[in-house]
């Protein structure tokens, strides 16, 4: 106790004539060293000696000035009570004092200021949670007190926000400036981040003014405080879980109070919403008509806490709230719009409450509000903290809702959903889980999109999704080299080693090539700090995208353009493919193939990196199969190739005629891509077209089969053999494709066999 004994503390606190400042210092000393007295056998004598003194001080006059020394003493005593262990032990030292303390604290909630009253309800809750044996008769009194707080909510709103003349309306100058500097955003089309904010570490010191904690403020009465009310919903839930005999009676009393608390609005805010709606806009943030921004934020917090209470009640007592449920989505959306940007924790709690509500199968009631929820200004607001940390939570909650009601969405809602989540799919910042969630929603919506009555719109949305996936593949390819480096660093750290951040003369450190976040003047979330393997993350996302592609192409088939074709003249399997692609859509198909095939490089990282020397193509291909692809990669390669079986022959030919050279080049970087031409040639739908294009490409390079480059000659030889295999598989179609090349192949082979560096061309001739 830093030289001060417990006897000195008792003496100072118990003598009425002692100066209040000395009492406060003694109470502070006791609070800071409380752990010494609350364990072991000394706890019971400590309570018997100090508790009467605490009670005597708290029975004194209530003070409503924050810096008054008497108020600071009373608050410090309450902090001591809050830290006292109240859980039953073998001797239960706190039990004899519990009833008297609870009665005293309930009286303080009614009569004391909001700072003390807030602490009082917390202390009562803790005591009731642990001392239920002696407090059974006090529970209803406490619940009645909380109900009175709920009942007064509307009058408090009118008093503090509509007619701010009382003590709660007096703000420090800095608070008024902060409110003025944070205008609302009716109809705003861009995110507006206010930075630095008042109190920010980067704000200019002269602008901060005196510390608000040191200013003498008028304090509200506890029964007229949003802060006190904010503590109550979770306390009621806790009491219901312990004192189950009180539930039925009190649920009936709380239900109408919850409805009233959630429905009340500040007049200026309500008018701002009405004015924005009249202009066809939306209003988010705090209205300029709100003069007490801090009180408004506390009101929203109280309403959000009440929403969490409602979510708890809906689990078992939905029948008592059935008449209120149709109004619930409107209230949820309003709270999202009204939540001040600085209340990021409040918005997070609201998002969690909404997720609980929709998980209780109360989803269809939100259908009319999905358009508004898809607006970023409504869902995440314009706060920097929310933008940096809560987008995954917000959009995953919304994705969960949309996923379950997707068959009931209007065409306009489907359009907005596709636009919002294709944009999210491209957002690299929050991490791949955010993108995976977006991808799964988009891919799962393919069926409901295909059912749209306007097939042109349906086709457009499906192509939008495919284009977004192609763009995502391209982004993953751009990240490849950097992802390899970061993955290496990540695994070094897992093994206990730390990469050397210092540059050496002959070797530069492995810098993150795309890390711009560590250089930002205001530190936000850094994706590199997520402590995950970017290669594994991208492979997981790639796998999810690939598994959904086939169904998306299949649904595209149901949106075919009516070309008025004669069924007798169309190619085989015409009814099983998508057709009618315009030039822009063909480019999407090309991008999807080109970028998707290149992403398979991520699977090359797992394989041996050394490049052994081979004496012949046979040895090279044997080694290729020895270190062949993993089961996952093979399955994804097959899925990827079969996706393109679903497009018409003309589009397939147009797309792949120019992509075969690129595929050939990619095979040198990742040999497993040889499986793609194999799958194309083994499918009746694509074999004739691809075989013709491949043979034409190979004939232009037949002279390289006998080159000194074993790898190149091996790959060319393998492609020739695949083309010949296709003739065996589908002789009626592919013999006609091979026939024009036979004479040329034979004559060229004989001619080049005399010039071949190695013997593989001779083998090829045989």
Automatic annotation (TrEMBL):
<dbReference type="InterPro" id="IPR016024">
    <property type="entry name" value="ARM-type_fold"/>
</dbReference>
<feature type="compositionally biased region" description="Polar residues">
    <location>
        <begin position="162"/>
        <end position="177"/>
    </location>
</feature>
<dbReference type="GO" id="GO:0006281">
    <property type="term" value="P:DNA repair"/>
</dbReference>
<dbReference type="GO" id="GO:0035267">
    <property type="term" value="C:NuA4 histone acetyltransferase complex"/>
</dbReference>
<dbReference type="GO" id="GO:0006355">
    <property type="term" value="P:regulation of DNA-templated transcription"/>
</dbReference>
<dbReference type="InterPro" id="IPR011989">
    <property type="entry name" value="ARM-like"/>
</dbReference>
<dbReference type="InterPro" id="IPR050517">
    <property type="entry name" value="DDR_Repair_Kinase"/>
</dbReference>
<dbReference type="Pfam" id="PF20175">
    <property type="entry name" value="Tra1_central"/>
</dbReference>
<dbReference type="InterPro" id="IPR046807">
    <property type="entry name" value="Tra1_central"/>
</dbReference>
<protein>
    <submittedName>
        <fullName>Uncharacterized protein</fullName>
    </submittedName>
</protein>
<feature type="region of interest" description="Disordered">
    <location>
        <begin position="160"/>
        <end position="216"/>
    </location>
</feature>
<feature type="compositionally biased region" description="Polar residues">
    <location>
        <begin position="185"/>
        <end position="197"/>
    </location>
</feature>
<dbReference type="GO" id="GO:0000124">
    <property type="term" value="C:SAGA complex"/>
</dbReference>
<dbReference type="GO" id="GO:0005634">
    <property type="term" value="C:nucleus"/>
</dbReference>
């Amino acid at each position: 106790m830093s030289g001060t004994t417990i006897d000195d503390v008792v003496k100072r606190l118990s003598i009425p004539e002692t100066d209040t400042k000395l009492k406060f210092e003694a109470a502070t000393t006791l609070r800071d060293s409380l752990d010494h007295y609350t364990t072991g056998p000394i706890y019971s004598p400590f309570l018997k000696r100090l508790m009467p003194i605490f009670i005597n001080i708290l029975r004194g006059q209530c003070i409503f000035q924050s810096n008054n020394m008497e108020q600071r003493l009373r608050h410090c005593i309450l902090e001591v009570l809050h830290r006292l262990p109240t859980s039953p032990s073998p001797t239960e030292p706190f039990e004899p004092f519990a009833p008297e303390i609870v009665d005293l604290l309930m009286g303080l909630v009614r009569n004391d200021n909001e700072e003390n009253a807030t602490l009082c309800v917390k202390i009562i809750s803790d005591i009731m949670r642990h001392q239920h044996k002696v407090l059974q008769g006090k529970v209803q009194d406490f619940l009645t007190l909380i109900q009175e707080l709920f009942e007064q909510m509307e009058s408090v709103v009118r008093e503090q926000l509509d007619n701010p003349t009382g003590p709660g309306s007096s703000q420090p100058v800095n608070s008024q400036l902060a409110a003025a500097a944070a205008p609302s955003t009716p109809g705003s089309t861009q995110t507006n981040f206010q930075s630095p904010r008042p109190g920010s570490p980067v704000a200019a010191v002269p602008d901060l003014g005196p510390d608000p904690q040191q200013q003498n403020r008028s304090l509200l009465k506890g029964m007229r405080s949003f802060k006190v009310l904010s503590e109550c919903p979770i306390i009621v839930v806790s009491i219901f879980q312990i004192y189950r005999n009180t539930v039925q009676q009190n649920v009936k009393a709380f239900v109408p109070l919850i409805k009233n608390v959630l429905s009340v609005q500040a007049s200026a805010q309500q008018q701002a919403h009405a004015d924005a709606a009249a202009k066809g806009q939306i209003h988010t943030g705090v209205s300029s008509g709100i003069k007490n921004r801090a009180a408004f934020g506390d009101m929203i917090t109280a309403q959000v806490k009440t929403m969490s209470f409602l979510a708890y009640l809906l689990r078992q007592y939905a029948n008592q709230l059935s008449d209120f449920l149709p109004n619930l989505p409107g209230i949820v959306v309003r709270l999202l719009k009204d939540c001040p940007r600085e209340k990021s924790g409040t918005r997070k709690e609201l998002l969690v409450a909404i997720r609980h509500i929709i998980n209780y199968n109360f989803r269809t009631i939100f259908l009319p509000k999905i358009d508004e929820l898809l607006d970023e200004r409504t869902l995440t607001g314009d706060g920097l903290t929310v933008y940096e940390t809560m987008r995954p939570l917000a959009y995953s909650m919304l994705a969960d809702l949309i996923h379950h009601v997707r068959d009931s969405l209007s065409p306009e809602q489907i359009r907005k959903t596709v636009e919002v989540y294709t944009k999210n799919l491209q957002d690299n910042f929050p991490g791949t889980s955010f993108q995976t969630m977006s991808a799964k929603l988009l891919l799962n919506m393919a069926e409901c999109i295909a059912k749209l009555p306007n097939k042109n719109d349906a086709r457009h949305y499906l192509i939008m999704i495919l284009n977004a996936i192609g763009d995502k593949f391209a982004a993953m390819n751009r990240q490849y080299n950097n992802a390899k480096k970061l993955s290496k660093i990540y695994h070094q750290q897992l093994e206990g080693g730390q990469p050397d951040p210092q540059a050496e003369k002959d070797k530069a450190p492995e810098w993150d090539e795309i890390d711009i976040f560590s250089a930002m003047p205001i530190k936000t979330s850094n994706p590199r700090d997520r402590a995950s393997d970017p290669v594994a993350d991208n492979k997981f996302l790639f796998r999810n995208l690939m598994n959904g592609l086939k169904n998306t192409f299949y649904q595209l088939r149901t949106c075919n353009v009516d070309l008025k074709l004669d069924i007798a003249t169309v190619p085989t399997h015409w009814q099983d493919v998508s057709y009618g692609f315009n030039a822009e859509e063909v480019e999407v198909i090309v991008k999807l193939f080109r970028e998707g095939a290149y992403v398979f490089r991520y699977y090359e990282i797992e394989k041996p990196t050394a490049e052994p020397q081979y004496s012949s193509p046979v040895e090279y291909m044997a080694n290729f199969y020895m270190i062949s692809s993993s089961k996952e990669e093979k399955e994804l390669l097959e899925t990827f190739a079969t996706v393109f079986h679903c497009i018409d022959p003309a589009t397939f030919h147009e797309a792949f005629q120019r992509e075969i050279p690129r595929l050939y080049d990619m095979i040198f970087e990742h040999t497993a891509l040889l499986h793609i031409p194999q799958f194309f040639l083994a499918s009746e739908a694509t074999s004739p077209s691809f075989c013709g294009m491949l043979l034409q490409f190979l004939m232009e390079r037949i002279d390289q089969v006998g080159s000194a480059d074993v790898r190149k000659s091996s790959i060319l030889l393998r492609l020739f053999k695949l083309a010949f295999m296709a003739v065996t598989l589908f002789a009626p179609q592919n013999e006609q494709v091979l026939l024009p090349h036979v004479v040329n192949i034979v004559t060229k082979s004989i001619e080049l066999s005399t010039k071949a560096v190695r013997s593989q061309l001779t083998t090829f001739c045989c």
